[in-house]
Design a protein that fits this description.
heterodimer, A: alpha/beta, FAD/NAD(P)-binding domain, 17 strands, 30% helix, B: alpha+beta, D-Amino Acid Oxidase, Chain A, domain 2, 3 domains, 9-stranded mixed β-sheet, 8-stranded mixed β-sheet, 17 helices, 22 strands
Chain lengths: 445, 565
C-alpha cells in the first residue's frame, strides 16, 4: 500500500495551499480530489474579507474575528499566509495586486453590476484605481462569445446606481470586436478563447483588432478598457504584456461565468508547484472510505477503475469544501452531514436554512454550516472535544463563515490551509519548517 | 406605448382569461385595452400545472365542469394547436383508490361526454415504466398539456390586429366612480412611474385571485378565497402522458409532462393574500407521499424547484349566482355584474380554469355586449390563432429537430436547456421588435428549462441591447419605449442608462429571488448544492446584488406596493 505523510482531500484553494506548503517542507504529500473546485468557478481574485462596511481586507478580518468566525482563531495567520501565497504566485509569473490594507473598491462585473474587491490578479488591477473625472470606460467584447455582452454591460454601468456611491467613469461605451475566423465558430467558451491566445498564431492580429476597436470607441478620451477574462492560460503573461503595450487605453480583465480562466491560472500555478516540490496531485479520485483506528486516520480508500485502492497516511487534511463544493451534504430528512468522516456538523435547524429573498444581504443562514475546529484546526465533536487527533479541517468546510456575503472564502482557505500545513509538516519531517509568522501570531498559536 | 384616453372596454388582467376577453371583444368590434401590473401570465396562468383538461378529473363531482372541459379541450386543440402537446392522459387505479370510484369512472366519463377507453395495464406499463406496477386498471382520456405564454401572446396579437391593445407593467391604482358608473381608471406605468387616466365605456376585471382588490377600487365587494396550489418540477419527463389517479381529485395525484420537465400537482390551501404565501415543507412531504403511490421511485427523482399558484376561487353567495343570468354557469366560474352594487359598467369574471378560459371570455363578453348594445356573435372558437398552423401541435422533439436543422452541435445556443439558438432568438426579435427580454422569454422559452435562467437571462439581455444599438444607429433615435430614461425612470442616473437596463436588472434579480423561493422548501442534497453554487457565481463573480437596488422598477419597491393597496 502506498504511504504518505499527509493525504489532502480536495483541490480547492485550501487543499492546494496545505499541499503546497507541506510539499515545500519536504513532507510526502498526496492531494486527491474528485475534480476541480472553486478556483474553476470563482473570479480568480483573493477575497480575504469584505463584509458590508469593511474598508480594507484587514479591517474585514478584524470585524469577522470579533464574531463566531474561523477568523476568531485564524486572524493572526492571515497576513503571513496571504503574503506567502502572493509571493508564490508572483514567482510563477502570475502576480497579484493589492494588500490587506488596500481599500476595498467596486469593480465592474460581466453583467454590468459591480463587486467589492481589494486583492486581484494583476490583469484585473486597473479596475481598482479610482476613476478620474474625465475618464471613459470602454467595454470591449468579442463577437460570437456569448457570456460577455459589451453593449448591455455598458448600458448598465452607465447608471450611477450600480456603483453604489463609489466614484465611476464619466462615460461608458460598449464595443464588439470581430476576431478573424470566429464567425463560423459557435458555442465558444472562455477556455476556447484562452487557448487561442495561448497558441499565439493569431495573437498579434487579434490584439491589433481589439486596439483598433478601442481606439474608435474611445474617441481620443483618456480612460480604461474592460475585457472578458480570456487572455491566455499558459501564455497569459506575454499575451497580457502585448495587449497592454498595444491598446490605446489601459486594459483590465473582468471575470466571467464558469469556466473561470483567471481561477484556472491560479490552480495551475499551485498544482505545478506541488508537483515540482515532490507532492502528488490526483484528480478523479472518489474517496469512499477512511480507515480510523483509536481516533486517528490510518488510510484513505478510493475507487479505481476495477477495484479500490488505498493510501496509508499519518495525517489527513480535509479540504472538501462546504455545501457548494460537496464537503457538506443536506439529507432529505433535514440534517447536514460531512460525508467523508461523518464529522459533527454545526448547522441551524432546517426551517431556517434559507431566507425567502435570495438577495437578502445577510445571505442564507445555512451558509454558516460546517465543522467547528480547535485552533489547530482539528475537528470538534458534539462534546466540543477533538474527535480525530490527526485530522485537520480547512477551507469552506469550517463552520461559522458565510463566505459568499462576507467574501472571506479565499482568506479562510489560505490561512487555514497554511496553518494546518505548518503543524503537520513539522511532525512529518521532524524539523521545524520555515515559518514566516509574525511574532504576535507566534505567541497566539 | 402611450395609454389611450378612451376605449370601449378596459380589461384588467393579462392572464389567459383577460387575453381571451380582449380577443373576443376585438373580434366583435369593441376596441379595447388590456392592462396588467406585470408581464402577461405572471399570475395564475403562468403558475399552474399545465394541464389541458379532458374533464376526467371532474366527472365524479361536477359533470357540468367536465362537459365544459371536454368541449373547450376540442376547441383549443383546433384554435391553438401550437400551444398544446397532445400527450394523452390516463387515469390509473392504484391499490389505494376506492373500488366504487374506479367502477363508475368509465360511465361517469360517458355521461359527461369525455372520451374514455380502458387500456390493458401491461400495455400502459410498457409505455410508461415509471408508473406503480401495482395499478389495477387504466383509462385513456384526451388530456394534454397547454403552454400559456404563446397562447396569450397569440390572443393578444389577434386583438391587436383588430385595433385593440395590451399594456404590460401597467397597474390599475385607482377608479373614479360617479353616477353609478366607473368614469375613469388610473393606471401607473410600473417601469417609468408615469400615471395616466383612461375613460372606458365598460370595465372587465379578469384579475383572477386579485379580483377582490380590483373591485375594491370601485367600492365593490367581491369575496375571493384564493386557493394556493403547490407543484413540484422534476428535472426530466417522468412520463410522456399525463397520469392521474383514478379517485376524487386530491393532493399529489397528477403528473403532467411539460416540454423537458414534469410537474407533480398539487395541493389546495386557502391563503388570505394572493401575493403573500409560503410553500411549506409539510406540503412538499404530502405531495411526495401521495405522488409515491403513482410513481414508487419518486423520492429518488430530482426536484428542480417548487412553485405555487393561487386558484381564483370564488365562493358565490346564492343571490349573486342567480343575478349572473340564466346561462348554465357551472360552479367552476361566475360572471359578477356589479350593477347589483351600484356600478353599472363593471363586471368581474372569477373562478374557472385555463382549459375553459375561452368559454369564460365568451360568456363575459356576451354580458358586456348586451349592455353596450352590441349584437355581433362570438367567433373565437372558429378561427386558428395567428401564427399557428392548423393541426400542428407542439411536439417535445421539435426544438431538437430545429436545432439539428441549424447544424446540430454547431448551432449557436443561447439557452442550452431549451435549445434556443441565437438565430431563433433573433428571428423572434425580427418579427416582434421593439420588445423586451420578457417578450423573448415568453416567445422562445429561453430560461424556462432546468437552469431556470441562470446562464441565459444575461445573454438575452445582451442580444436585446445589440438590437437597441442597431436600431439607434439605423434610425438616429432609440427604439420606441426604450428611450434613455429620465432620472426618475432609471433610478438615480441622470441622463444615462436605458429602461432596457432596468428591465434586465429585474430579470436577473428575479431569477435569484424566485430561485431561493422555489428551492427553499425542497432544499436538500444536490439541489441545495446547486443553489449555493449559483449564489457563488451570481454574488461573488457577477455582483447581482448591486443591480437589485439599482433598479427603478416600482414593483421592486415593496413599500410603494403596500401603499398602493
Amino acid at each position: 500500500m502506498p504511504h504518505a505523510d499527509v493525504v489532502v482531500i480536495g483541490a480547492g484553494l485550501s487543499g492546494l495551499t496545505a499541499a503546497t506548503r507541506l510539499a515545500e517542507a519536504g513532507a510526502v504529500v498526496t492531494l486527491v480530489a474528485k475534480g476541480h473546485a472553486r478556483t474553476h468557478w470563482g473570479s480568480g481574485g483573493l477575497d480575504i474579507a469584505a463584509p458590508h462596511a469593511a474598508r480594507t481586507p484587514a479591517d474585514g478580518v478584524a470585524r469577522l474575528a470579533a464574531l463566531d468566525h474561523p477568523y476568531s482563531y485564524l486572524a493572526p495567520c492571515v497576513a503571513p499566509s496571504v503574503a506567502w501565497m502572493m509571493e508564490r504566485l508572483a514567482a510563477a509569473g502570475l502576480p497579484y495586486a493589492g494588500t490587506l490594507d488596500t481599500p476595498i473598491r467596486r469593480v465592474p462585473t460581466a453583467i454590468g453590476g459591480t463587486r467589492r474587491v481589494a486583492i486581484v490578479p494583476q490583469a484585473q488591477s486597473a479596475a481598482l484605481r479610482p476613476w478620474g473625472r474625465d475618464e471613459v470606460l470602454v467595454v470591449a467584447g468579442i463577437a460570437g462569445y456569448k457570456d460577455f455582452w459589451p453593449l448591455a454591460i455598458a448600458d448598465s454601468l452607465a447608471r450611477e446606481a450600480v456603483w453604489h456611491g463609489a466614484d465611476r467613469p464619466a462615460a461608458v461605451v460598449g464595443v464588439s470586436v470581430e476576431l478573424r475566423g470566429l464567425g463560423d465558430r459557435h458555442n465558444l467558451n472562455a477556455m476556447h478563447l484562452a487557448r487561442r491566445f495561448d497558441e499565439g498564431a493569431l495573437r498579434a492580429d487579434d490584439i491589433a483588432a481589439i486596439a483598433r476597436a478601442v481606439e474608435r470607441a474611445a474617441e481620443g478620451r483618456p480612460g480604461r478598457v474592460a475585457l472578458p477574462a480570456v487572455f491566455g492560460l499558459a501564455a497569459h503573461a506575454e499575451t497580457w504584456a502585448a495587449l497592454r503595450a498595444q491598446l490605446p487605453l489601459e486594459p483590465f480583465e473582468v471575470p466571467l461565468v464558469p469556466p473561470s480562466v483567471p481561477g484556472i491560472r491560479l490552480w495551475r500555478v499551485l498544482r505545478d508547484r506541488i508537483r515540482a516540490a515532490g507532492g502528488r496531485v490526483q484528480l478523479g479520485e472518489f474517496v469512499h472510505a477512511v480507515r480510523v483506528e483509536d481516533g486517528r486516520v490510518t488510510a484513505v480508500e478510493m475507487e479505481a477503475a476495477t477495484r479500490t485502492h488505498a493510501i496509508r497516511t499519518e495525517a489527513l487534511v480535509l479540504a472538501t469544501g462546504g455545501l457548494s463544493g460537496g464537503g457538506l451534504r443536506a439529507t432529505d430528512d433535514g440534517r447536514i452531514v460531512e460525508p467523508v468522516l461523518g464529522l459533527h456538523v454545526e448547522a441551524v435547524e432546517q426551517d431556517a436554512w434559507l431566507v425567502r429573498d435570495g438577495l437578502d444581504p445577510a445571505g442564507h443562514p445555512v451558509e454558516a454550516a460546517g465543522v467547528r475546529a480547535d485552533p489547530d484546526l482539528r475537528p470538534l465533536g458534539a462534546d466540543h472535544r477533538v474527535s480525530h487527533a490527526n485530522v485537520h479541517v480547512v477551507g469552506g468546510l469550517l463552520a461559522d463563515q458565510r463566505s459568499i456575503r462576507e467574501r472571506c472564502g479565499d482568506g479562510v482557505a489560505i490561512a487555514s490551509g497554511w496553518r494546518a500545513a505548518r503543524g503537520l509538516a513539522s511532525d512529518a519531517t521532524r524539523s521545524p519548517i520555515d515559518c514566516e509568522m509574525a511574532d504576535s501570531a507566534r505567541t497566539e498559536l | 406605448m402611450a395609454v389611450p384616453h378612451t376605449v370601449d372596454v378596459l380589461v384588467i388582467g393579462g392572464g389567459a382569461t383577460g387575453a381571451g376577453v380582449l380577443r373576443d371583444l376585438a373580434r366583435r368590434g369593441m376596441t379595447s385595452l388590456l392592462v396588467d401590473r406585470e408581464d402577461f401570465a405572471t399570475g395564475t396562468s403562468g403558475r399552474y400545472h399545465g394541464l389541458l383538461h379532458s374533464g376526467g378529473r371532474y366527472v365524479g363531482k361536477d359533470k357540468v365542469a367536465a362537459r365544459e372541459c371536454i368541449e373547450e379541450n376540442r376547441v383549443l386543440r383546433r384554435i391553438a394547436p401550437a400551444s398544446i402537446e397532445d400527450t394523452g392522459g390516463y387515469f390509473v387505479a392504484t391499490p389505494d383508490d376506492p373500488d366504487d370510484y374506479v367502477e363508475a369512472f368509465a360511465d361517469n366519463c360517458n355521461q359527461s361526454g369525455v372520451d374514455c377507453d380502458e387500456v390493458r395495464v401491461a400495455d400502459l406499463l410498457a409505455r410508461e415504466p415509471a408508473i406503480n406496477p401495482g395499478i389495477r386498471r387504466a383509462f385513456r382520456v384526451p388530456d394534454g398539456s397547454i403552454e400559456p405564454w404563446g397562447l396569450i401572446e397569440a390572443m393578444v396579437a389577434d386583438a391587436r390586429a383588430r385595433g385593440s391593445d395590451a399594456l404590460t407593467y401597467h397597474k390599475v391604482i385607482g377608479m373614479e366612480v360617479a353616477g353609478g358608473r366607473i368614469e375613469t381608471v388610473t393606471v401607473r406605468d410600473e417601469r417609468t412611474g408615469s400615471v395616466s387616466r383612461v375613460w372606458p365605456k365598460f370595465v372587465v376585471s379578469a384579475a383572477g385571485a386579485w379580483a377582490g382588490q380590483i373591485a375594491a377600487l370601485a367600492n365593490v365587494k367581491v369575496e375571493m378565497t384564493p386557493g394556493k396550489g403547490t407543484m413540484l418540477v422534476y428535472n426530466y419527463r417522468v412520463t410522456d402522458a399525463v397520469i392521474n389517479r383514478c379517485h376524487r381529485s386530491s393532493d399529489g395525484d397528477i403528473m403532467v409532462p411539460i416540454h423537458s420537465v414534469s410537474i407533480l400537482g398539487t395541493t389546495d390551501i386557502k391563503v388570505p393574500d394572493p401575493d403573500d404565501y409560503d410553500i411549506t415543507r409539510a406540503e412538499i412531504r404530502r405531495l411526495v407521499d401521495e405522488g409515491e403511490k403513482l410513481f414508487p421511485s419518486l423520492r429518488e427523482m430530482r426536484i428542480l424547484r417548487a412553485y405555487a399558484g393561487v386558484r381564483p376561487l370564488y365562493q358565490a353567495p346564492a343571490d349573486t349566482v342567480a343575478g349572473a343570468g340564466n346561462r348554465s354557469i357551472s360552479r367552476a366560474h361566475a360572471i359578477l355584474d356589479h350593477a347589483d352594487q351600484g356600478v353599472d359598467n363593471f363586471v368581474s369574471i372569477v373562478g374557472g380554469k385555463m382549459t375553459t378560459h375561452r368559454l369564460m371570455a365568451e360568456q363575459t363578453v356576451d354580458a358586456v355586449a348586451q349592455k353596450l348594445g352590441n349584437t355581433t356573435a362570438c367567433t373565437t372558437a372558429d378561427e386558428v390563432l395567428p401564427g399557428m398552423e392548423p393541426g400542428h401541435h407542439y411536439w417535445v422533439g421539435h426544438r431538437l429537430a430545429d436545432h439539428e436543422a441549424e447544424g446540430g452541435g454547431d448551432a449557436d445556443l443561447l439557452c442550452e436547456c431549451e435549445l434556443v439558438t441565437r438565430r431563433m432568438a433573433e428571428a423572434y426579435l425580427d418579427t416582434h421588435w421593439p420588445c423586451s427580454i420578457d417578450d423573448v422569454r415568453r416567445g422562445t422559452r429561453v430560461g424556462m428549462g432546468p437552469c431556470q435562467g441562470a446562464f441565459c437571462t444575461f445573454r438575452v439581455a445582451g442580444l436585446v441591447a445589440e438590437r437597441l444599438d442597431a436600431h439607434t444607429k439605423a434610425t438616429g433615435r432609440p427604439a420606441p419605449g426604450t428611450e434613455p430614461g429620465t432620472p426618475e425612470e432609471v433610478g438615480h442616473a441622470p441622463g444615462s442608462g436605458s429602461l432596457h437596463a432596468a428591465i434586465a436588472d429585474r430579470a436577473l434579480t428575479a431569477f435569484m429571488r424566485e430561485r431561493a423561493k422555489g428551492v427553499r422548501p425542497i432544499a436538500s442534497g444536490r439541489q441545495l448544492q446547486e443553489l449555493m453554487m449559483t449564489n457563488l457565481v451570481f454574488v461573488d463573480v457577477l455582483g447581482v446584488e448591486s443591480l437589485s437596488t439599482a433598479s427603478a422598477l416600482v414593483f421592486e419597491d415593496e413599500e410603494a406596493v403596500d401603499a398602493a393597496r
